[in-house]
Each structure stands twice: as structure tokens, then as C-alpha cells.
Amino acid sequence: MTWQFVLDQFAANFGLWWVIWPAILLGIIIGILPGFSPQNTLIMLLPLTLAVPVEQAFAFMVSLYCANHLSGGIPAILVRIPGSGGAAATTLDGYPMTQKGQAQQALVLSFVASVAGGLITTLATLALLPWLSQIGLYLRSVEMVVVMLFGLTLIAVIAAKDTLKALIAGFFGLLIGVIGTDHIYNAPRATFGFLELYDGVPLVAALIGLFAVSEALVMIEEKLIVSREGRERASQSQWADTVDGLRISLRKWWHIVWTSFVGLFIGIVPGAGASIAAFVAYQQSRLWSKTPELYGTGIPEGVIAPEAANNGVTSGSLVPMLALGVPGGTTSAVMMIVLQYHGMVMGPRLFQTNPELAYGVFIAMAVAYIFMIFTILPLARYMARIVLIETTYLAPIIILVTIVAAFSERQYLFDMGLALVFGVIGYIAHKTNYHVTAMLIGIILGPLFEQYLVRALRISEGDVSVLFSSTLGNMLWALLALSLALPYLRKPRSQPVANGR
Amino acid sequence: MKPRQPLGADLVIPLLGLGFAAYFFVDIADLGWEAKANGVLIGAILVFLIAVQLARMGRQFARGEGDLRADPLWQPPDATRKRLGMVVLSAGFIAALPWLGLTLALWLAMLLALFIMGVRNRATLVWLPLALATAVFLLFIVVLESDFPHGPIEKLLT
């Protein structure tokens, strides 16, 4: 790969602006709406992507994918409803910033962190692709079990107000995630007799219920979702607030860089995904902060870390697909189908047989991120105004529209009812500080955790000690234990009082 | 003397978790070990964590620091009325969908929801639900062609 090759690819991808721009706009819209996933959108648009040349198809798909990751943070910041699981961690500090009247700054921080994080990791991937592709090979079932537990227990650490309650919520979620048929015998488990639960708990219904419906039920108590001081600030928002957000982002440039690399490395692990990446980055950010007690109260670092990480995932998740032929997630699986339809054979040989495509994917991604920042940044000022809508109107709209959106994943009316049930559970959890985010992450990880655990146990014929049989796995266990213990070791210096909600 | 904490609300999630874990254990009792290994492991950890939480709360009760009131769930009373109204209305909306179709059911549900929330302006009560129902109709029925039940409006317009 020469500089000339890279420059030619950049020029070619800038020429695809007419493909990239509509994909970005579409990605932003579906990212804002809970219930609309990039994979479902790509599946719906499959006839279109199969009909156009592969370079255009891929530019469209990666632009939509990246824009989706970026915009999931918008509702997370404005109304505490993550557009996707990857944006759940953004609610922890993004929403408190909104309540303080700093929604515009929070949005700008989120946009800059997302774009810079995505751009940095895309360029890093481009340079380090042959080496990065090897990482996935070292992670087997045993290590993946630890990675999953790592993701879950980190949330309990983040919810430092009451770790025990957060762990209960997390493991409750994990058990809910086991509902459905098992992988070996296809026997239904804890389905309450509902056929609709045989495939497991639908994630969109859980996300909508635990976050959107429950938050709307909570917000009824206040006239506006912002505090009185925040209301004045939000109503007087100027372009200066956008500039202020940019200034803060520049000051925190190093934070953006290292948290985006957390996302990149986690993205390379097949199945780990943006949710884990965002929480790991948030937790690590808090762990190494000089002021961990401020996390959860609405600070810029708490928005930057998850947003940089969940966009760092975008390039990471494509690495195993291109280099090994193993899709890192559902969206990359859809992309792989399109590439295979066009006759591309994934794996190490792709870099010799079709370097324009193998490297071009990441260059298209970098170009998409550049387009994205100019598209979305000017909108922050206007988006921030949503917080001035009275909850009298906002709550019914959120409840009814998101319940309708719960239908979109599987087209079952049952899922709408399930979203309402999760909404009530989420409301009770909100009010009693049983961290809903931990519960959601548990539900997301449940099926994956089972898959890896059962695989590891089958290899060892049921011997549990297999979980402590690998060096890398043991190192990960030690890291997990350290992450749990470190906040307590640091306690004498600073008392974490993060927002339990 | 410190006021007693209303700990009744704190019991709801542990009791739900405990009940679900018990149901899970009973339901998987006859399955092969591969099908129940994960559930048993996670369920056992959950039961242990809940036991620790209940012991912690028991200690608070014994010290006279808390009682079984569940105030956080019901306060403030005015919001609770609206909240219950929204939950019942949402359940009714889902139940009515097969007969009324998405557009009409949503228009009616939104109108009633605004009424429950205290809106009395007639123009708002008519036009806001209409705008929302139209947008949802265009997105889900026209553009995405979702399999929502078709009612009179959908049958008339599609």
C-alpha cells in the first residue's frame, strides 16, 4: 500500500459524495429512532446495494453504519433514551449535562468524539490491519466468557452508588437474556408459554421499555426535563455553545484518542460490540480520572469516552470480517453477504486479490466521517431545543411512538406489550436505583454469554475449571478483579457518588 | 432521630428476580445439562446476590431504620395518576390495534394521552394526534410497508 494508492482511494471516495451523503442522513435518522437498527435497514435496502457496483454499495453501507453509531447518542443525551445499546453509556453523563442546560455542548462533544474517534481508529486500522486481524484468533470461548462478565461487572462499578443493586440488576438481565430455546436441544426455557419468546427476548422491545417508556413515566413528574437554571440556558442557546463544545473537545483530545482505541480493540473481538466498548471506555475513563466523583453528574469526559469508543468499534468490527471472513456483528454479516454476492472472497487473500476494496472500505469510512461532522455539527443548536418541549406533550409522544417502534424488529404485536412490561419494570428499577443499564446489558449479553460458556464446558466435558485454564483468560480475570477492586482502593482519596440512575 | 426509609419499594426488584429465578429452575429441571448450565450458574449467583440484599435490608429493619412503605413508587400523587393512566392507555392501545388499525388507534390513544396529561385545548387535542398519526402512517405503512394490522384508515388509503 503506497501513499499514491491511499490518495487515489480518498479521491475516488470523495467522488462518491452522492452515495455517502444520503446514507449519512438515513443513518442519522435510524440511529435516533430506537427500534431501527442499521442491519435491518441494510436488509431492507439489500436489493439496492446488490444492484450497484460494489464500491458504491460499500460506501453506502459503511456511511450508514457509522452515522448510525454517531446518532444513537443524540436521544441518549437529550431525553435519556439511547438510540441503540452502544449509546446506553452516553446517558450517564450526557443526560445530566442536558438537565444542567448544556445539551448543545453535550451534543457537540458527542459528535466530535464520535467523528474523531471513528476517524483516528479508521486510519489506525488502515495502517495496522495485518496485525490487528490476528487479535481475534487469540480469543476463544473461555476468554470470551471473561470478556462478557467484564462488560457486566464494569457496569456495577460504574453504578458505584450501590454496586450490589447494580449486580442484582445485571444478573437479573442476564437471566432474562437466557429466556428462549437452548442452542443444543432447542428446548424452550422460561418462555411463560409464549411462542414469541422461543427466539429469546427481543432486544429492541427491552431497550425501548427499559429506557424510553420508563424514562417517560419518570419525566411526568416535572414540567420540563431540564432544571430551572438549565431551562434559561437552553432557551438562550447560541452558536457560542457549539463553539464552546468544540473548544472542550479540543482540550480533551487525548481522552478522545485513547478511549477510541478501547473501542477499536473491543470491536475486533467478534460479538463484543459497541455496548461493551462504550461501558469499558467509560469505566476506564473514570478509573484513571483525577475526579472520578464527578462522573455521572454531567461532565464532558463522561460523554467523550463512550462516544469515541462506540465509534472506534465501527472500524474494529470490520477487521475480522475482511481479514478472517468472520463477521464481528450483525451489520458486518449483512455487509459480508453483499460482498460475497459480488464475488469477493473474504480472508487474508482479499488484501492481495482486491486491495482497492480491502483498504478502500476503511478509506470510505474515513471519508464518511469527514462528511458527517460538517453535516451534523450545525444541527446541534436546533436539536438541543427539544428539551424545551413540555413533558405534557413529550411523554405521550415518547411512550406511544416507541411502543409502535417495538413492533419493527420482528413485526409482532407481542413485542409492543413486552416493551410496556419492560417499561414498568424499568420504572420501578429507576425509582429504586436498580440500574436499568446493567439490566439491559445483561439482556444483550445473555445469549452470547450462554453460547460461549456452554461451548467451553462442552470442550471440558462439564469441568468448570476450564474457565481458569488459559493464560490470557486468567490475565483477563485478574484485570476484571482489579477493575472491581481499584475504586475501593482509591476510595480514601475520593468518594465516588455517580448517579445510580 | 432519623426518619425511617421506605424500603418496601426496594423489595420489588429482588422479589421479581427471586420469583423469576425460581420459575426458571423449575422450568429447566428436566433438561440436559447443556441446556441448564448457564441458567443454573446465573440464577444461583442472582439468588445469592438477592439473599445478601435481603439480609442487608433485614438489618435495616431490625435497627428500626426502615419500614415497608413503598413511597418512591407512588410519589407525587398527581404524577402517579397520570402514570397509571398512561400505562393503562398504552395497554388499551395495543389491545385495540387489531380492530382499529395503527393510524386510528394511535390518533385516539394520543388524544386520550394528552387529555390524561392535562391538555384541554381542543385544537391541540385534535391536531397534534393527527400530525403524529399521519407521520407514523407514512413511515410505517407507506414507506416501510410494516405488517401492522390494517384498520379502516389503512384499508381506505392503501
Helices and strands in order, then pairings?
The complex is a heterodimer of chains A (501) and B (158).
Chain A: H1 3-14, H2 17-32, H3 38-44, H4 46-51, H5 54-71, H6 73-79, H7 91-99, H8 103-132, H9 135-138, H10 141-158, H11 163-176, E1 180-181, E2 188-189, H12 203-219, H13 228-235, H14 239-251, H15 253-268, H16 273-287, H17 300-324, H18 330-341, H19 350-353, H20 355-376, H21 380-383, H22 391-405, H23 413-432, H24 436-459, H25 471-490
Antiparallel strand pairs in A: 1-2
Helix pairs in contact in A: 1-20, 2-5, 2-20, 3-18, 5-8, 5-17, 5-18, 5-20, 6-7, 6-8, 7-8, 7-17, 8-14, 8-15, 8-17, 8-20, 10-11, 10-16, 10-24, 10-25, 11-24, 12-22, 12-23, 12-24, 15-16, 15-17, 16-17
Chain B: E1 5-6, H1 8-28, H2 33-62, E2 66-67, H3 71-74, H4 77-116, H5 122-143, H6 152-157
Parallel strand pairs in B: 1-2
Helix pairs in contact in B: 1-2, 4-5
Structural class, from helix and strand content of chain A? mainly alpha
Order of helices and strands of chain B: EHHEHHHH
Task: Calculate the mean pLDDT score of chain A and round it.
Answer: 81
What is the global morphology of chain B? flat
The largest sheet of chain A, given as strand count, sense and whether it forms a barrel, is:
2 strands, antiparallel
Strand content of chain B: under 5%
**Structural class assignment of chain B:** mainly alpha
How many DSSP-defined strands of chain A?
2
Q: Main beta sheet of chain B, described? A: 2 strands, parallel
Give the oligomeric state: heterodimer
Radius of gyration of chain B: 24 Å
What fraction of the residues of chain A are assigned to beta strands by DSSP?
A: under 5%
Give the helices and strands of chain A as they follow along the chain: HHHHHHHHHHHEEHHHHHHHHHHHHHH
How many domains, in number, for the residues of chain A? 1
